[in-house]
Each structure stands twice: as structure tokens, then as C-alpha cells.
Amino acid sequence: MRLSRPTEESQIGSSNSESLRLRVADATAWGADYFISLHTNASDISSASGSEAFAFSRNSPAFALGEDILVALSAATGLRNRGMQVRSGLYVLRKTPMPSLLVELGFISNPNDAYLMSQRPELFAEGLYNGISEYFG
């Protein structure tokens, strides 16, 4: 496993588009088997809550991996499983040669989700670990 930003101070590129390009190039260069991009969601509706994930296509290993991760995230955090969706236009899903997944851990605009992400990050790590472990048996 490798992290593109191993510390809070880590920065990749000088723009969003350059950062995305460099992450894909790095994962491709070191031969990653899977690419998982972790994010926090936001909404104008403060009650929006839960975890969701996106894959390039429904019939892909990434989609199945995402389903397992979301079940495990919900079990670990108590947050709603908002489900897997297809988003073929997302750069990191479209440009990576390996199965790729974008996971929205929770809503930073929701006080409970934000609290869990900032004060209980180990719950999200546990959910991710358990989901990946379930997928790979």
C-alpha cells in the first residue's frame, strides 16, 4: 500500500488537475493492483450523511470492492451506506489502468459525520480494512 499524501502537509501538484494527473501517473508507475481514492463529501443540506463510492463501470472488480468497503464502513462507523454508483467521467476512474474506486467517507457538512471523521478516524480505517479484507477473502 502507498499513500499519495502520507502527511497533512503533503501536496501533490499546484492545481487540482495536475494533482489528479500525478496521482494516476504515480499509481501506474509503481504498478498498483488497485487504486482507492479517499474523499470527504459535502452538501448544502446539513442532514446529508453517509458513505458512498464510485467506480468506472458496474461490471468491474472495483465496483465489487466498493460494495464490500461500503458495507464494512457502515458497520464500523454506524453511518448510512449510500451505495455504489457508476461515474465514468471521474478522472481517477477513467485514467487509471488498474481497477479504481473513489470513496466518499462521509459528509464534512454534517456535524456527526464530520465529528467521526475528525475525532474517530480509526473507525474509517477499520471499515476500509475490513471491506478490503472481505473482498480479497
Verbal overview:
By secondary structure, this protein is an alpha/beta fold. The chain has a single domain (33-136), classed as Zn-dependent exopeptidases (Aminopeptidase). The chain has 5 helices and 4 strands. The protein has helices at 16-29, 61-77, 91-94, 111-119, 121-136, and strands spanning 35-41, 51-55, 81-86, 100-107. It has a 4-stranded mixed β-sheet. Helix 2 (61-77) crosses helix 5 (121-136).
Q: Supply the CATH superfamily name.
A: Zn-dependent exopeptidases
Mean pLDDT: 95
- CATH fold-type name: Aminopeptidase
Segments where pLDDT lies below 50 for 5+ residues? none
β-strand amount: 15-25%
Tally the helices: what do you get? 5
Précis, in short:
This protein is an alpha/beta fold. The protein has helices at residues 16-29, 61-77, 91-94, 111-119, 121-136, and strands at 35-41, 51-55, 81-86, 100-107.
Give short descriptive properties of this protein:
alpha/beta, four-stranded mixed beta sheet, about 45% helix, about 140 residues, Aminopeptidase, 5 helices
Helices and strands, with pairings:
Layout: H1 16-29, E1 35-41, E2 51-55, H2 61-77, E3 81-86, H3 91-94, E4 100-107, H4 111-119, H5 121-136
Parallel strand pairs: 1-4, 2-3
Antiparallel strand pairs: 2-4
Helix pairs in contact: 2-5
